[in-house]
Design brief:
Elements lengths: L8 H29 L7 H23 L4 H21 L8 H24 L8
Length: 132
């Protein structure tokens, strides 16, 4: 086993999901400031949230696929789904709000598509060879 390859599933998933989660929340905060400043209308919130979720899922799966030693496509895809799960749990924490299952399905579809794309790109990127 090489020193730079993660050895467990936790190592392959924890860092990418955490990075993707933080990136998604930062992107959503930036978009909310843009809307608050009046640069975009509030009707574009759903489109901006899809872009933020998609970019977070893409980068999460890309990083996970790069970190995984074997089965890179699978690990990237799982990392993207884990990010969706974390965001879904966070959004369900807002008590008293109704859940729009169509919106959840659209977010899930965007997460799946971008996770597949990120996994494909991350698995196809060449890795640097480290000398011993």
């Amino acid at each position: 086993m090489k020193k730079h390859e993660p050895t467990s599933a936790l190592q392959v998933l924890a860092v990418p999901v955490l990075v993707g989660f933080v990136a998604t929340l930062v992107l959503m905060a930036i978009c909310s400031v843009i809307i608050w400043l009046g640069k975009m209308s509030s009707t574009q919130i759903s489109i901006l949230s899809l872009i933020c979720i998609g970019m977070g899922s893409f980068f999460t799966s890309l990083i996970a696929a790069r970190l995984a030693g074997q089965k890179r496509l699978m690990w990237g895809f799982i990392a993207g789904l884990c990010l969706f799960g974390c965001i879904a749990l966070l959004s369900l924490a807002w008590l008293g709000q109704t859940v729009d299952f169509m919106r959840v399905a659209i977010n899930f579809a965007v997460s799946i598509i971008t996770a597949i794309l990120g996994s494909l790109l991350g698995a196809s990127m060449k890795r640097k060879r480290y000398k011993k």
